Amino acid sequence: MLMQETQNDDSDTKTEEARSFLGRMGHSYGVLKIRNFRYLFLSNICIHFAQWCQSIGLGWLVLEITGSAAQMGGIVATQGFSLLISSPFAGVLSDRVHRRTLLMVTTSINAAQALSLATLVATGYGHLWELYVFAIVGGMANAVTQPVRQAFVYDAVGREAVARAVPVNNLAQSGSRVLGPAFAGMVIGFTGGSSSAFYVQGVLALMAILITSRIGVTAQVRSAGGVKESPFKTLTQGLRYVAGNPSLRGQVIVQIIPALLVYPYVQFLAFFAAHLHGGPQTYGLLASGAGYGGVVALFILTTLGEVKHKGRVMFAAVIGYPVSVALFTLSPVVSLAMVFLMINGFCNQIYTAMQNTMFLLGAREDMRGRVMGIYSMIQGLGPIGQLCMGFAIATWGPDRAVLWFEIAAIILLSITCVFSKTVREA
Questions:
Q1: What's domain 35-214+245-424's superfamily in CATH?
Q2: Which residues lie closer than 8 Å to 256 by C-beta, 6 or more apart?
Q3: pLDDT tens-digit profile of 350-390?
Q4: What is the DSSP string of 340-408?
Q5: What parts of the chain have a pLDDT lower than 70?
Q6: What pTM was computed for the model?
Q7: Based on CB atoms within 10 Å of each CB, which residue in 71, 222, 236, 402 is the most buried?
């Protein structure tokens, strides 16, 4: 009798645990019931797939035209400098103009750019200098798109649900990273030309415009000075606000290190694929590897809901990020490389979700667009690292060059963790 009661108690406990788990999942994914967020999420899926088509197509096109890692680094650096210069002003625009309007305009520019480049390459008129021009235009458009889409999450769901909405929204990015690169690699492999990837990018951008047009008017606190203040004064206010906020200031410092030393490796996966004796399909497979780990990470975050000790979780993940890349560079076969790339994606998405949430919750409402613009500006520093990494790869090869970058990142991030108590205790 006693054993039967114990078994019943165990059964009831398991049932309650299952109900609690399902309840947390339903609560987290319930943000998709919000109409505006649902359309934003679908639009983001299209945009992230389009970006991967561009990234894979561009990487393979440069490899075909020049075979030079330095040229690949130069093109990405050009786009990054454009993003770096434009992002702060994009944040100002995000606080002044309705974000749906900005998204539709910049996505239209991306669509026109992709279809134009596809046509040039398909007709044999694609040259290296044209890729630099498109990199500048694309960087300026992305400078607006990135902070606007991030700030729009808060507009769509409100403060109470933003911690649940950020990891769900990031699933669009991580999911596209699983399927997008492999898909783009197969398109290039089957059609024999990178122009097909650019055509697909253009179509996806047009789909994103259509979906974005379905988003209703959202509440948005505008810049206090309105359009009467000069953009430079408004930008200066945003920079002073971030510099005077210990938590935001510390997060910016943390973000600079992986932007310069870790993430740049993604643009050189084509050279790792060649190093592992693979072709475009292997390139696409490697590029999608981190996405698998990212999906797992975001599934865990959305299931858990609100995460306590965000600062500590962020530091653990951001240090694990370069560690996994370092182990990837030492992998002699594709299967082992994929394992470390999946760990890499897991750490990256945990770090990104925690930092996005901390930025959105830590920013004052009328400053949110400018804060996210500065966030995107720091991402624009990455191509400086890509330029340096490109020359290092050209000199020492992809494995040795990237490994030293990651060792430097691990050391700097560990030091930052020790001295950034405000961020660590957030």
A1: MFS general substrate transporter like domains (1.20.1250.20)
A2: 378, 381
A3: 998 888 888 777 777 777 777 777 777 787 677 778 778 88
A4: HHHHHHHHHHHHHHHHHHHHHHHS-GGGHHHHHHHHHHHHTTHHHHHHHHHHHHHHH-HHHHHHHHHHH
A5: 1-29, 69, 73, 217-232, 234, 305, 380, 426
A6: 0.69
A7: 402
